[in-house]
From TrEMBL:
It comes from the Bacteria. Residues 1-20 form the signal peptide. It comes from Spirosoma aureum. The lineage of its organism: Bacteria, Pseudomonadati, Bacteroidota, Cytophagia, Cytophagales. Keywords: Signal. This is DUF4292 domain-containing protein.
Length: 239
């Protein structure tokens, strides 16, 4: 009986161990496809411009990031400037479209979400490995006729599912449920038009669905620059 019990435990444990190793292998292949851990880690700051299309409106924006620390996004809308910033554990926004013409502090849950953007786009799995976030391989699926691996990652701001192209090992899409001021909804992102810049292969187009937006958003990134000099004062909340 004792021997049978040991065999049963081994039978259950071995597939689970293999499953975990497979998830690690997928993440390692994704990191290699992006350009390697050293190349990713070498990026300390970055900037890029945005061309945004939403509900027939064409907008422009600019993002400045200090990796793992600060994030600023400026978007021009109908002659107005919308600003969202996180710096460490604090954040603020200016949004004249909602009557907030002066800087307002962001709620903690929104700061957590925006902090997740303080990285090189397309390197979320490298961050997960570096930060040792819990990762589970859900399985292999078909998304838009492509074979993808579904990885469930528990991040500080919540649980997200990342879909990794089974051929290129680049990110194909992700989804997560967010909760802001008592309202929850699912955010979905599709990644595309991968380009190699200074040895890093990253997406230059995104399609985003967010319950807080009036419709789907398409974004094209241009003028991507790694390690520009960044004035830390741009992240300080105006008084």
């Amino acid at each position: 009986m004792r021997k049978q019990l040991i065999n049963l435990i081994a039978f259950v444990a071995i597939p689970a161990l293999t499953f975990a190793q497979t998830a690690d292998e997928i993440i390692d292949k994704n990191i290699a496809a992006v350009g390697g851990a050293d190349k990713i880690a070498a990026v300390k700051t970055l900037q890029y411009d945005q061309n945004i299309s939403i509900m027939g409106q064409e907008l422009t924006g600019k993002t400045t990031i200090v990796v793992a620390q600060s994030y600023r996004n400026d978007i021009a809308v109908m002659g107005q400037q919308i600003v969202q910033v996180t710096d460490g554990d604090k954040g603020w926004t200016i949004n004249p479209m909602t009557g907030a013409a002066t800087a307002q502090a962001l709620p903690d849950e929104q700061v957590k979400i925006l902090k997740g953007n303080a990285s090189v786009i397309g390197t979320d799995l490298a961050t997960a490995k570096d930060k040792k976030y819990p990762v589970e391989l859900v399985g292999k699926e078909k998304v838009n006729d492509k074979d993808v691996y579904n990885l469930k990652i528990t991040r500080p701001e919540g649980v997200a599912n990342y879909y990794v192209d089974a051929t290129t090992f680049q990110l194909a899409s992700m989804k997560t449920t967010v909760s802001i001021q008592g309202q929850s909804g699912e955010v979905k992102v599709k990644y595309g038009n991968y380009k190699t810049i200074e040895g890093l292969t990253i997406p230059s187009s995104l399609e985003l669905e967010n319950p807080g937006m009036p419709g789907p958003l398409a974004m094209t990134l241009t003028n991507i620059v790694f390690n520009p000099k960044v004035d830390p004062g741009i992240f300080a909340m105006p008084k």
